[in-house]
Design a protein that fits this description.
The protein contains four helices and six strands; from the N terminus they run αβββαβααββ. The protein is an alpha+beta fold. The protein has a single domain, classed as Beta Barrel (OB fold (Dihydrolipoamide Acetyltransferase, E2P)). A five-stranded mixed beta barrel has the order 1-2-4-6-5. Strand 1 and strand 2 (47-54) form a beta hairpin. The N and C termini lie far apart (74 Å).
Length: 152
């Protein structure tokens, strides 16, 4: 093949590739969602954080919350859903983060990056990956914003 033929063939493949690949794509296995609910800490075999009285989650983009989203969430009614929360360490207070798993082995108190937004008994707005496989629905947290000190 000549150099020109190779270039033309490459250009044709490049123009048709997105269409060919698009037909093979499937829906993501998990969706980024947001919802409001009440934070609950349950102690069974291990400490587990839950979002109870949660509203039905809505699909959203994986970005930080803006001021309008937070204000709208303050008006949203609580619901009857329940989600186990995973990936909680960064949203606890500094002391809790350091006691979480092996964090204290590689993080010191002056290096802790904890938001302290995930507090038991508080109403929060969460964003995360919705995992509905298995018996318990879970949200792997990406962001947490406290909305109220109580849950009522």
């Amino acid at each position: 093949m000549t150099h020109r033929t190779v270039l033309m063939l490459a250009a044709m493949i490049a123009m048709t590739w997105p269409t060919a690949v698009q037909g093979q794509r499937s829906e993501p296995q998990v969706k980024v969602v947001q919802t409001v609910g009440c934070v609950e800490l349950r102690n069974d075999d291990v400490a587990a954080w839950w979002l109870t009285r949660a509203a039905d989650p809505t699909e959203t983009r994986a970005r930080v919350f803006n001021e309008n989203q937070v204000e709208e969430a303050k008006e949203e009614a609580l619901g009857s859903r329940e989600f186990q929360l995973v990936g909680v360490a960064e949203f606890l207070d500094a002391e809790s983060l350091l006691s979480f798993g092996d964090r204290a082995q590689f993080t010191t108190a002056d290096q802790v990056n904890a938001t302290n937004q995930l507090r038991e008994g508080h109403t929060v707005l969460v964003k995360g990956l919705l995992i509905e496989a298995g018996a318990v629905a879970r949200i792997n947290l990406l962001a947490v914003v406290g909305l109220a000190d109580g849950c009522g």
